[in-house]
Predict the structure.
Amino acid sequence: MPARLSRADLDFVIRTVATRRRDYDNIREIVQDKPDLIDIMLDDPKLFQRVMNEEESFLSISPYLLFEILLRQAKRELQERKYTYEKAAINRTVPVFDGLQVGELLAQEQVRTYLAQMLASFTRTQTATVYYRIGGRSYRRRYSDLSIDDLYDLARLVDKDYRAPFYRRIGDVCLFLTSVFPEYIEREFRYAFAKSRGAAWFSRKLRDVDDYVEEGRKFYRLAARHRQKDRAEPDPVLMTLAENFSLARKPLLHIADRYLCFRKFDLFSA
């Protein structure tokens, strides 16, 4: 059984897909060490129908399995439709015929797995208080792993050899926000100076969606190329996301708009 699927996840898949059999324990014994069979089962549309029609299924499976199912459904729909939508102006979109390219991107198992794990990571975000010394003075600061400014500042506090996870997380935050909550970015950018904010607000760089896209490409590329003792070549998944950042947003936008709707505020409470 793939390490990323729990036994409860696998049981959910089996009971949903194997509708003509009831010997679920036997089926589990057969498929748990055969990832190819599990992959076929995960492509069954009945899984998508169940998670969309049964509210409790959102709570009975792991976030990873949920997003794996949704990504596979997005792949099917966008390949069949052959186009996606891009925003051209306020309340206006235009079709772009890149659905097949989106499908090809999601057909890469490592990329799809990374995206599912990335989305799952945002169902529980974290803040931490860090104490550090600079020039003989002690400082205390809280950091959020949903803020690219916080993550970049935190990366600067550690040795260069250990910065890759922070760079990768910055890329993840940019991809997540521009895909699942682009309205948050637009609202903050458009109205920031109209709101009453303290001086700390103006010390931060204001970014629109395009800025986040460029930051995402930049930091995925930095993370991919970061030197590792056990790897001379750039990380292939991170480099793929750096080079196809806008394309990677398309299935996530599709999922947020078509499948999650208002549910995303429950899944991603932060």
User: Anything to note?
Assistant: Residues 1-61 form one domain.
